[in-house]
Amino acid sequence: MKRYLGLLMAVVLMLSPVTMWADTYTAGTYTGEAQGHNGKLKVEVTFSDGAITAIELGEHTESPGIADPAFERVPQAILEHQSLAVDTVANATVTSKAIIEAVADAVTKAGGDAEALRNKEVAQAQAGEAQEMTADIVVMGGGAAGLAAAVTAAEAGASVILIEKTPAYGGNTILSGGYMQAAEPEYAKTVEMTDGQRSEVERYIALEPKGERMAAWQATVREQYDAHVKAGNTWLFDSPELHMIQTYVGGDYVGNPELIEMMCKGDVDSMHWLADNGFNWKNSALAIVGSIWMRCHISADYASGQGFIAIISNMIKDKNLDVTTLFEVAGTKLITDDTGRVTGLIAQGSDGTPYTLNANKAVILASGGFGANVDMRVKYNTMWPSLDASVPTTNAASITGDGILMAQEVGANLIDMDQIQLLPIADPVTGRTNNVIGEGTNMYVNQLGKRFVNESERRDVLAKAILEQPGSYCYIISTFWNSRMDADYKNNYHLTLDEMLASGAVFEGKTLEELAEKMGVPADTFVETVNNFNKYAAESNDPEFGRMVFPANAALEMEGPFYACKRAPAVHHTMGGIEVNVHNQVLNTQGEVIPGLYAAGEVTGGFHGSNRLGGNALAEIVTTGRNAGSHAAQ
Ligand SMILES: Cc1cc2nc3c(=O)[nH]c(=O)nc-3n(C[C@H](O)[C@H](O)[C@H](O)COP(=O)(O)OP(=O)(O)OC[C@H]3O[C@@H](n4cnc5c(N)ncnc54)[C@H](O)[C@@H]3O)c2cc1C
């Protein structure tokens, strides 16, 4: 198994007299190990008789970018305090805990008392003096929406302060699968159009329109599709207008058509903007779970959502933009003047230092949704039996709805707050998404070895169907050919097959019967289910569950090895949030603009209606971040 060899760090401590007598060890270097986020994590820990003197990071498979702040801070803190009761790092807590546990393992091997070190109190950092700073624009949140807003505003000549409450850029964006929808015609040419897809286009054109905008989109698609057919094109038809219809219909007509139009026109441009700045797109158009159409694009270089963060944040440095980032500073309250205009925000550093950040032009809220805020989930949930703490989430811990609450305090209108998406195919225990092996549109079976749903359906339909199965989980079935693995046997998060198998949620069988045994499902039923599915895929017609759209590789190659990935729904996306207009200006409860206040990304509501299509979030956040940044800078 290929692993990252993280010999990056060797932190050596000058011993103080206090630490000298506190602990006793058998001097030497010991290897400690513990379970990290993606697999085993090792550390080499050096001890003198009385202290831990160095911690060197060994082999691990943690995700670059996401885990880095934990690698930088946790060993340093353990050395400084000679304690294992050190703080974990926000959004990298699993990695932080793994480092602590691996050092504890080494402490035990060195004859030390790990339990005593776990209980050894660490003095809290002291708050610094109050800080006051001023810029044209203050952005709150360092995911892709906030970064795109900051960069675009700075490119337009504005000075920008960006605050991020964790020690690193990323948010949910860096954790994401990295699939972005955009109706880019060149990439659609990589896909041969099937009969099922042809009838889907006709079905969308023939739907009863809800409003003038939808009728206009349908008329445009009619013309575009006729021209596509007349030209004899055999590749997949796609256009921004088809994307608009699918987004609006896919969200039960709850989304705002004006915003949907802005997003679906703008996302192709956002794709080009990223490419112009070094984002290397794979030449493909993919379907992911609940994307409805083969319109998702992904980086050829970076794992998961890391490329979005790396490329946009690098622009700050590469273009020498006037953007000052304050990490570990959380916005808490918006400042308004007598007229109600937003003129800045109050924030607090993680050490308690108070900040007053004045904005000459505007504040842009880009702090993400509220998927990790259990109280808000429970308060607004009407769609699901329960969204309490027992339901896992795919979200980063810092995604707690702060911007939504701050905007509400100054009179912003909140919309669609009850529209909370469950990702149907998360890890049943942890909610993680990075150990998925089969495509989300592959065949699903339950513990009885039977299919139970049209797998190309919307996410809410899939999640509800899975929750009704025995144990409320299912298995995604694949071979190599319809898995997410590339030629190196790595998935889109760059996890290897071995790492996925080690996660406990992925099973491998040389034959279908062997796989059935590992899953504990009846082999006869399972094999019959696979045979039926293959037949339906070949005919693009599934009489059992009405599935019409099958990617070319949907059928299971009958040669093993076969894979099953155990999956269950987890809280994923909050479609509701702050109401905005087409410039991403925040609206109050009377529908009027709140001067000086913008919102971009998942903190907003109105784009996805009752159900976000897979790949539409990255499309929205980059587009709305740029939109807010350029308008606010004017
Ligand atoms: C596991 C996972 C997989 C996904 N996969 C996909 C996919 O493949 N395609 C797709 O389209 N969508 C996907 N999504 C959804 C998508 O990633 C998110 O909707 C999107 O990244 C949100 O971007 P954002 O910039 O609005 O917020 P985020 O990226 O979440 O960033 C918000 C930032 O604000 C910071 N913050 C919060 N509160 C404060 C505060 N008070 N002060 C300062 N900073 C604050 C947070 O720490 C965070 O860094 C996925 C989501 C998850 C969780």
What does this structure look like?
The protein is α+β, with helices and mostly antiparallel strands. The chain folds into 3 domains: 115 residues, Sufe protein. Chain: A (Alpha-Beta Complex), CATH 3.90.1010.20; 259 residues, FAD/NAD(P)-binding domain (3-Layer(bba) Sandwich); 150 residues, Succinate dehydrogenase/fumarate reductase flavoprotein, catalytic domain (Flavocytochrome C3, Chain A, domain 1), CATH 3.90.700.10. Strands 7, 8, 11, 12, 13, 14, 22 and 23 form an 8-stranded mixed beta sheet that branches. Strands 16, 17, 18, 19 and 20 form a 5-stranded antiparallel beta sheet that branches. A 4-stranded antiparallel beta sheet has the order 2-5-4-3. β7, α5 and β8 form a beta-alpha-beta unit. The N terminus is likely disordered. Bound molecules: flavin-adenine dinucleotide. Flavin-adenine dinucleotide binds next to α5, β8, α6, β12 and α19.
What attributes does this structure have?
single chain; 634 residues; alpha+beta; Sufe protein. Chain: A; FAD/NAD(P)-binding domain; Flavocytochrome C3, Chain A, domain 1; 3 domains; 5-stranded antiparallel β-sheet; 19 helices; 23 strands; 20% strand; globular; disordered N terminus; binds flavin-adenine dinucleotide
What about the largest sheet?
8 strands, mixed
Into how many domains do the coordinates divide?
3
User: What integer is the average pLDDT?
Assistant: 94
Characterize the overall form: globular
SS summary, helix count: 19
Number of strands: 23
CATH class (first level) name of the largest domain: Alpha Beta
- Give the class from helix and strand content and strand pairing: alpha+beta
Specify Rg, calculated over alpha carbons: 25 Å
Q: CATH superfamily of the largest domain, called what?
A: FAD/NAD(P)-binding domain
Assembly form of the protein: single chain
Helix content: 25-40%
Which small molecules are bound? flavin-adenine dinucleotide
Q: pLDDT below 50 for ≥5 consecutive residues: which ranges?
A: 1-21
CATH fold annotation of the largest domain: FAD/NAD(P)-binding domain
The CATH architecture classification of the largest domain is: 3-Layer(bba) Sandwich
User: Approximately how much beta-strand content do the residues carry?
Assistant: 15-25%
Distance between the termini: 52 Å
